[in-house]
């Protein structure tokens, strides 16, 4: 190489390093390397990503900025990521400047093949139109009744018999897998009125469920690679992109047949004599407007994706936490029995177990709701989420947000900050959600507790999710004591949803309610005894 060429190379390298030094000085997050930015840190901490992000945020005071591509012209725009869990910043992004922080083109591109322009993958007017229709439906009592019907049937006809068999045979169960199957059957029933029966006896494989799982996994795989790479693999038909294409085709074919049959039924040409029998979301959308078949497919798929993993993952962490906190478990069981004794007028445990919970009984389970909320604070189903920055902006804490960059709000970290939740923020303490006398549930600010999102995009199914989780948790804990199987390690899986990496292997033992019944009976006798 000639001297002149060497001089140019050295000059370019020196100029780059001078630029890199100035750029990196303005970043407060993890170490940034030349060219590759913070990617080495992300790779190094891939197995404990959420804890690593939380530790970075604690050191930085709740917000930091990092660069994933340290290249001039990119580093301060598309390569810049702001990470925050500050409640003031969350309210700014999710509510005050909502229009400036959409999901953005990257998120939409990743999920486009699976979810299309559905409610969870769209912005602007497309999102507004679907949100309005969905919001009207989620406020109806008939949808709540439909959810309760599907859930109660799955619990009493499928989940409980499996747990009974496991208790009798002293076999272990993968509770996470059972809960995933249960919530998938439920959400399919609620979304389009069909039961895939994945929790049926023998835990059979279902072609639609398998295709949906493969499509979801292949879609999430896109987050690992740069967009240009997965687009190239898609064009060439390589790797997981081939799996995604074939799985989406299978899912679309299945839903197309469902939609065709439902249209005939709603028109009075099918086997059903009345449209009133169809209370699922798909039928409701059909009756509300003129949606194309493709749009209706995306409606169903979006709600399935949102409704399956979130509740089952939350319940998995809940059962693990309760099994390792016996005092909390005792309080939950005591509340369950007290509510049933009051509503069913007896202290006979057989009567408590004879029928599913009513709405009124579920609404009375205050401590159980607190325990579920405390679970979601520590282990939110979606631990991290991100937004695209449309125009230059400043966060309330003074952080500059350049257009074209992105902001990740760490829901996992938001529940683990001492500055927000106090010195005991890492403790599982349901009492923090209760009034001083323990009789009322007291929700926290939605920008401190972001497990159900916040602002205009707050989860429409929040109340239904609590209804489902309370029903499942109460039905199981009334009948069984659960303990983690010996040797089983509970670890987080690095995914968009906070799955347990190795599942949740549990021992199942029958629960004896007689001591609780005696305790409640004694308390009633003391309360009604005449004064001396």
Automatic annotation (TrEMBL):
Q: Which GO terms describe its cellular component?
A: membrane
Keywords tagged on the record:
Heme, Iron, Membrane, Metal-binding, Monooxygenase, Oxidoreductase, Transmembrane, Transmembrane helix
Which Gene3D superfamilies does the entry link to? Answer: Cytochrome P450
Indicate how the chain sits in the lipid bilayer.
Single-pass membrane protein
Keyword Ligase: yes or no? Answer: no
Q: Enumerate the transmembrane spans.
A: 6-23
- What is an annotated GO biological process for this record, any one? lipid metabolic process
Which metal ions or organic cofactors does this protein require, according to UniProt? Answer: heme
- Which residues take part in binding heme? 459
GO function term, MF aspect, one = iron ion binding
**By what name is this protein known?**
Cytochrome P450
Species annotation: Oryza punctata
- Biological classification of the source: Eukaryota, Viridiplantae, Streptophyta, Embryophyta, Tracheophyta
């Amino acid at each position: 190489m000639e001297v002149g060429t060497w001089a140019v190379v050295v000059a370019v390298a020196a100029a780059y390093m001078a630029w890199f030094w100035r750029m990196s000085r303005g970043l407060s997050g993890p170490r940034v390397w030349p060219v590759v930015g913070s990617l080495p840190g992300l790779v190094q901490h891939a197995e404990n990503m959420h804890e690593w992000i939380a530790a970075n945020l604690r050191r930085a005071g709740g917000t930091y900025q990092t660069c994933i591509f340290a290249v001039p012209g990119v580093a301060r725009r598309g390569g810049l990521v702001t990470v925050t869990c500050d409640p003031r910043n969350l309210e700014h992004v999710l509510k005050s400047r909502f229009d400036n922080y959409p999901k953005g083109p990257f998120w939409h591109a990743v999920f486009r093949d699976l979810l299309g322009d559905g409610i969870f993958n769209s912005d602007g007017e497309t999102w507004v139109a679907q949100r309005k229709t969905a919001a009207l439906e989620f406020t109806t009592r008939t949808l709540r009744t439909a959810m309760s019907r599907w859930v109660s049937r799955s619990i009493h006809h499928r989940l409980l018999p499996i747990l009974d068999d496991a208790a009798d045979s002293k076999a272990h169960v993968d509770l996470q897998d059972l809960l995933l199957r249960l919530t998938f059957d439920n959400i399919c029933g609620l979304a389009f009125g069909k039961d895939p029966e994945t929790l049926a006896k023998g835990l059979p494989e279902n072609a639609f469920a398998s295709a949906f799982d493969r499509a979801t996994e292949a879609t999430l795989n896109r987050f690992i690679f740069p967009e240009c790479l997965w687009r190239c693999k898609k064009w060439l038909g390589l790797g997981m992109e081939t799996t995604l294409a074939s799985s989406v085709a299978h899912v679309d074919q299945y839903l197309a047949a469902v939609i065709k049959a439902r249209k005939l039924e709603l028109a009075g040409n099918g086997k059903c004599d009345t449209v009133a029998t169809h209370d699922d979301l798909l039928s409701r959308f059909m009756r509300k407007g003129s949606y194309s078949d493709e749009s209706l497919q995306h409606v169903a798929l979006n709600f399935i994706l949102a409704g399956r993993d979130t509740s089952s993952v939350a319940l998995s962490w809940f059962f693990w936490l309760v099994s390792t906190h016996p005092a909390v478990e005792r309080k939950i069981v005591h509340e369950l029995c007290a509510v049933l004794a009051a509503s069913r007028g007896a202290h006979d445990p057989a009567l408590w177990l004879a029928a599913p919970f009513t709405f009124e009984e579920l609404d009375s389970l205050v401590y159980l709701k607190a325990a579920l909320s405390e679970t979601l604070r520590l282990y939110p189903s979606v631990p991290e989420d991100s937004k695209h920055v449309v125009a230059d902006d400043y966060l309330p804490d003074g952080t500059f947000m350049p257009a074209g960059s992105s902001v990740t709000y760490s829901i996992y970290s938001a529940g683990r900050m001492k500055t927000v939740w106090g010195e005991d923020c890492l403790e599982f303490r349901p009492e923090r959600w209760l009034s001083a006398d323990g009789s009322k549930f007291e929700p926290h600010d939605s920008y401190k507790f972001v497990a159900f999102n916040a602002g205009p995009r707050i989860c429409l199914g929040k109340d239904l999710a609590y209804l489902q989780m309370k029903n499942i948790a109460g039905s199981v804990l009334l009948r069984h004591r659960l303990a983690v199987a010996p040797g089983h390690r509970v670890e987080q899986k690095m995914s968009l949803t906070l799955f347990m990496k190795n599942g949740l292997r549990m021992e199942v033992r029958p629960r004896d309610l007689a001591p609780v019944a005696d305790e409640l009976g004694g308390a009633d006798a003391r309360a009604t005894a005449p004064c001396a």
